[in-house]
Amino acid sequence: MFHISMIRLLLRGLVIASLFYLGFPSIYAQSDNFKVVIDPGHGGKDPGNVHNGYYEKTITLAISKKVAALLNKEPDVDVSLTRDRDVAVDLYARGQIANKRGADVFVSIHCDAHDSNAHGAGTFVLGLHRADKNIEVAKRENAVIYREEGYTENYAKFNSDAIGVSVIQEENLNQSIQLAYKVQNGLVKRAGRRDRQVKQAGFVVLYGTVMPSILIEVGFLSNSNEGAFLNSNTGQQKVAEAIAAALIDYKNEFFMNSIAFDQPKADSTTYYRIQLAASDRRLSENDPFFKGLKPIYLDEVSAVMRYFYGRTSSFQTAQELLKQAHNKGFKDAFIAEMN
After folding, report:
1. Rounded CA Rg of the chain
2. Looking at residue 141, which CATH number applies to its domain?
3. pLDDT tens digits for 126-175?
4. Judgement on whether residues 233 and 286 belong to the same structural domain of the protein
């Protein structure tokens, strides 16, 4: 189990980073090709979740290879894997691989486990604020660090370097969210998975990346039907096609423009809003869904409606607005930094 002290250290670095965020412009790689690094979760001595005879490390590698094969058909996409066989790769090293390769996006693929009734796919981005249920998912994935040789030294250094990395990661949060929604939409509509939505959690594997990054839980091995689907060639192909199509869509919409969609203007100032939810449905400010919270702002990108509550230039005030949202039942709400 991932120790609470480690989670607190990670959170501390993230919070400090948000306070010292300076509004650096978003950076896209200036090469001709769109660089994707796919990270098959677990591997080697770390099997990941094992249920009903299904091994997470085997399924994630199979899906990742299928995603890579599909992306390799695109002439303007360069794709690589953090592992291409059954070997262990330390969590901190996975993000470093993506950084060294100059990746434009990083996608970590995993399988979840809970009770036998749980099913569906969810997509995660790194976040400052997260619900307890999301922490539990992160704990399961992060626990592997205690099996790694030299984890004390590796992750002590990791935490001491966290502030600088978090500044860059926070700047990429909007792009990460857009990619996450595209992938999640594909998993639901193309692969037929139950929608467990886009969420935020403190995954170590995402923490050190300096590009838009997501972690996908493609389904539950603890569910016999879903485990069988994910272990089948047909199921893996459907999931891979959904992920690959989302990456291509993201590339065409954002990367080809070579300008980040949230590039701040010269006279812009930083402000904060509380993201409550995202949906493909357009809601009015007076919709009962918002439980009386006002003002509500709508940000529509690629047919995804993101709903925000409030606006303030004060981080302290934003924290108060976040508490109000949580008290209204929006437990997954989080502070979004805008320009």
Report:
1. 19
2. 3.40.630.40
3. 864 344 444 454 445 454 544 445 555 554 544 433 433 344 455 577 78
4. no
